[in-house]
Amino acid sequence: MSPWEIAKGLRFFASLRMTRGKRLGLKGESEMRSLGLDIGDKRTGVAICDPQGILATPLSVLDSEDEDVLVDVILKLVEQYEVERIVVGLPRRLNGELGKQASKVTTFTDKLSWQAKRSNFNQLDVQLWDERFSTRAAERLKIEAGGKGKRLRSRAKRGAPNYNFQPKAKVDAIAAAFILQGYLDSLRKGEQCRDT
To answer: Which pTM was predicted?
Structure first.
């Protein structure tokens, strides 16, 4: 399966066909680049969107075991890509309640916001977004695209750099792209932001 077919499966290009020839901003705002995060205990998937806020693409997978290092790397990505918004996936249970992992993500998000303000990223907007089924959808897409079933996720090697984007770990970055794309789609449709 080609990358174009994968993107079609993610509905990334649906909005491009609908807005052909038009510049699509976020509700009249200036161009805004966003970063999506799928935070896990061992790895964090990272995705980024184009400056117009139309298309989310997987960027990287980071090691999550040291939160301070993770926050620093995320803020370096914010600076490097001139990001103005971070969308963090909030894991909910099937019944909609928040669980233990959601509490960890909320605590991490608060820490990230606080550190961003300390680092003079005062305009950085950090949002929480419902991430239910994003990892499963990413795994299913990877399998359909020709990946191997149970060997999609990899463990970070000791001494490996923090940008661990090995082929088997791409699922986390794809899940982050699902989260970010859902948020961007909701902005274009005029929906209220969930979990903010």
So the answer is: 0.69
Assigned superfamily of 3-19+31-189: YqgF/RNase H-like domain (3.30.420.140)
Determine the distance from the C-alpha atom of residue 181 to the mean position of all C-alpha atoms in its chain, rounded to a whole number: 8
Q: Which two tokens stand for residue 165?
A: 């984007």
The dihedrals phi and psi of 160, each to the nearest 5 degrees, come to -75, 150
> What is 22-84 written as a DSSP string?
S---STTPPP--EEEEEE-SSEEEEEEE-TTS--EEEEEEEE-SSHHHHHHHHHHHHHHHT--
The pLDDT tens digits for 32-80 are: 899 999 998 999 999 999 999 999 999 999 998 999 999 999 999 999 9
Phi, psi of 98 (to 5 degrees): -90, 140
SS3 of 114-142: the string is HHHHHCCCCCCEEEEEECCCHHHHHHHHH
Task: List pLDDT tens digits, range 156-169.
Answer: 444 444 444 455 56
